[in-house]
Amino acid sequence: MLHSWSLAASGAAPGGAASGPTQWGMMCLLAAVLAVAGVIDLRTSKVPNWLVYPAIAFGLLGWTLAGLSDGGGPGMIQGLLRSAGPMLAAGIPMLVIFAAGGLGGGDVKLAATVGAMSADYEFVLATFVYSCIAALAMAVVAMIRHGIVKRTLQRLFGVALSAAAGARTDLPDDSPRVAFAMAVCIGGLLAGGQRLLEARLS
User: Fold this and answer.
1) Fewer beta carbons under 10 A from the terminal one: N or C of the chain?
2) Residue 144 CA neighbour count, 13 Å, CB half
């Protein structure tokens, strides 16, 4: 996958001549979507459908058309699968976390957006790892600011025990909240920066 990214950065990806510009264009648009989603989530604690649904559709359609341009009918199917695979790989694990009460529905759709637009499994994984680190850091800062480190850790431990027993337990309303879309924004930008650096060094 790293090799594929390096080829895409040079405009000569395995999918054909259009794959390089498509990759770069999608990444730039994805960065904008993540930034908008992060800011809105900070202000409203929601990720709007008007942002994520068109972005997912644009990612799927864009990669499908790029495949059509590169390889006709077979290329079109390959392009669609190239986008749909990472979309599902990003969205399904987040959907499981959502079902356990750990995330909002908008966060799941934003994760699917990352997969659909990047069309890159490795980028999805890097974004997820960086997002979790960013979310953890944001949660620690929030707990310290509110002076509730011990109380929050006790509640989280209780939720973990309940989850292990197969029961869903939501955190109380006074628990610190993390704008996970902002964490995904940070994670996506870090993953993108990492890829740019790798492409430069390759």
Assistant:
1) N
2) 6
Mean pLDDT, rounded, for 112-125: 96
Into how many domains does the chain fold? 1
Coil, strand or helix at 74 = helix
Residue 87's nearest CA partner among 51, 103, 63 is 63
What are the φ and ψ backbone dihedral angles of 89, each rounded to 5 degrees?
-65, -30
Mean pLDDT for the stretch of residues 161-165: 63
Q: Residue 63 is part of which domain span? A: 2-201
CA distances from 93 to 22, 82, 98 (A): 26, 18, 9
Euclidean distance between CA atoms 157 and 136, whole angstroms: 15
Type of residue at 94: M
User: In this structure, are residues 113 and 59 in contact, taking their beta carbons and an 8 Å threshold?
Assistant: yes
78 near 71, Cβ under 8 Å? Answer: yes
Distance CA 54, CA 104 (A): 19
